[in-house]
From TrEMBL:
It comes from Candidatus Methanofastidiosum methylothiophilum. Residues 54-191 form the AAA domain. Residues 288-452 form the DUF4143 domain. InterPro entries: AAA_14, DUF4143, P-loop_NTPase. Pfam families: AAA_14, DUF4143. This is Archaeal ATPase.
Length: 496
């Protein structure tokens, strides 16, 4: 039965209406304040709430989207001097479209009658509501979102992405400003700054503090320009390698990081929680848990080799390759996996017809999915076994490099509805020599090869010959050979 909402019910989720300091008692803020390692995502500074705008923030479960929203609300209340009643928050995980309409309408009518000042609406996990964009369009068309700043969050990529496509011209913002934000688990450079804050001063001294500066330095390597700042960071390689080892345990998920670095382990409860969220999201869209488990096993078995949908199907009981493709695409939609196409030598872009690679997006999700699919060991024991097995560790490291290259590419091409498959490919020449990743930027190709091994020789650069340049990501070595450059992985990831 549909609920009837009045302002007193909405006030329960907006306790700062009574006293702005009540935001400090919000459980998300309390958990953040009590964390030893407090992550305040860079994304926060790109959400500008001084104009009529509708932002979306997408990202996987439990990466911190709601915490980000509460931190923004805290800043508005305690630093921005905003009238508390002009700030509205609601989580829509269990609401119908009709209830969504009633909730927002109740708030806007109440507040508009009392104040003409700007209002701030934070609509959390709205992707749980079918056709939510129709309700937002209703308010926009009616003129109710004038002098309003709106932030919408969701955990399912396709719903948020395609729903916002149905709101053309109704979202405001600056002309070239991307309005669709993605909050992913923290990348390695953010991780290093969190657990080793001393690195901030080192990066600043070497003109590498800003992400844009680091991106430019990576591009310059392909033109033979080796920045002295990069070489200066080699002094800190031992510390960076140690932090990289920790990153391979926890990935970039804040709760997992704090649990591991405080307790020196990750609990079964934490693993089960994340698997439960993943399965729950898939079941919401009618995907079967058993099929998903079979596909996950097949992915780990074949990773990182290129494979067809039909060949992947043969490792499962699934009858059609299109079903397998749907499941892997669903992994992309909930931000736990990524598909990589080969580079077409003819078009210079991705070729989705030929065999593709499949990667997992974050180290902790990698371990969680592997432990769940195989169920041979305790989750944490399985994680440690993965990292002691050179083959599994190599698979994980290639996943990490791919994820960071996707983020590096987005930094070069920031825009709404960015799809990493359009920008990061793998490459095979006619002699079947393979390059792990090539980044497409404008009309240029930037090849990257991962060689996580103790020694590097000139022959390890041979696969770059098709492009006459390339960056080899090694375990330990920095060297230049012809037009090629090698960089230790911990240093490379810090630069992304």
């Amino acid at each position: 039965m549909e609920k009837i909402y009045d302002i007193s019910q909405l006030a329960e989720a907006n306790r700062w209406w009574v006293n702005k300091n009540n935001i400090l008692d919000d459980f998300k803020i309390i958990n953040w304040e009590e964390s030893k390692y407090k992550w305040s995502p860079n994304l926060k500074k790109y959400i500008k709430l001084d104009k009529d705008v509708i932002y979306t923030v997408r990202g996987p479960r439990q990466v911190g989207k709601t915490t980000l929203v509460k931190l923004i609300i805290k800043d508005l209340l305690l630093e921005g001097g905003i009238d508390p009643e002009n700030i509205f928050f609601w989580s829509f995980e269990s609401n119908s479209p009709q209830e969504l309409n009633k909730i927002i309408d109740t708030y806007l009518r109440w507040r508009s009658a009392k104040s003409a000042q700007r209002k701030y609406l934070f609509l959390d996990e709205i992707s749980a509501v079918n056709d939510w964009q129709k309700e937002i369009m209703h308010f926009s068309n009616r003129g109710d979102l004038v002098n309003c700043s709106v932030v919408i969050t969701g955990s399912h990529s396709m719903d948020i992405k395609y729903s916002t496509e149905r709101m053309p011209g109704r979202r405001g913002g600056d002309k070239n400003e991307p309005l669709d934000k993605i909050l992913m688990p923290m990348k390695f450079s953010e991780y290093v700054k969190l657990v080793y804050p001393e690195i901030q001063e080192v990066l600043s001294k070497n003109n590498l503090l800003r992400g844009s500066e680091r991106k430019e330095k990576i591009l310059n390597l392909f033109d033979g320009e080796i920045d002295s700042g990069i070489e200066n960071l080699l002094v800190y390689k031992k510390e960076l390698d140690s932090i990289f080892d920790m990153y391979l345990y926890t990935g970039g998920i804040p709760y997992v990081i704090n649990e591991y670095l405080v307790d020196n382990e990750i609990s079964t409860k934490t693993f089960n929680s994340y698997i439960g969220w993943i399965i729950g999201d898939l079941q919401k869209y009618k995907y079967k848990e058993d099929y998903f488990k079979q596909i996950i096993k097949a992915i780990f078995k074949t990773m990182p080799n290129p494979i067809s949908w039909n060949s992947l199907k043969d490792f499962t009981d699934i009858k059609t390759h299109t079903t397998v493709q749907d499941y892997v695409s669903a992994m992309e939609d909930i931000f736990v996996g990524n598909i990589v196409y080969p580079l077409s030598q003819k078009s210079g872009g991705p070729n989705p017809v030929k065999n593709k690679k499949i990667y997992i997006s974050d180290p902790f999700i990698f371990h969680a999915l592997h432990g769940w699919a195989h169920a041979e060991k305790d989750y944490y024991e399985n994680l440690k076994a993965n990292l002691l097995n050179l083959e599994m560790k190599s698979k994980l490291i290639e996943c990490v490099v791919h994820n960071h290259l996707c983020r590096w590419s987005y930094g070069l091409n920031p825009r709404d509805l960015f799809d990493p498959k359009d920008h990061i490919c793998y490459y095979r020449d006619k002699k079947e020599r393979e390059i792990d990743f090539v980044a497409i930027y404008g009309d240029k190709i930037f090849p990257f090869e991962v060689k996580y091994q103790s020694s590097i020789s000139n022959s390890d650069f041979s696969n770059f010959s098709s492009f006459n340049r390339g960056l080899l990501i090694s375990k330990d070595h920095t060297m230049k050979y012809k037009n090629y450059y090698s960089m230790p992985i911990s240093l490379f990831l810090l630069m992304i």
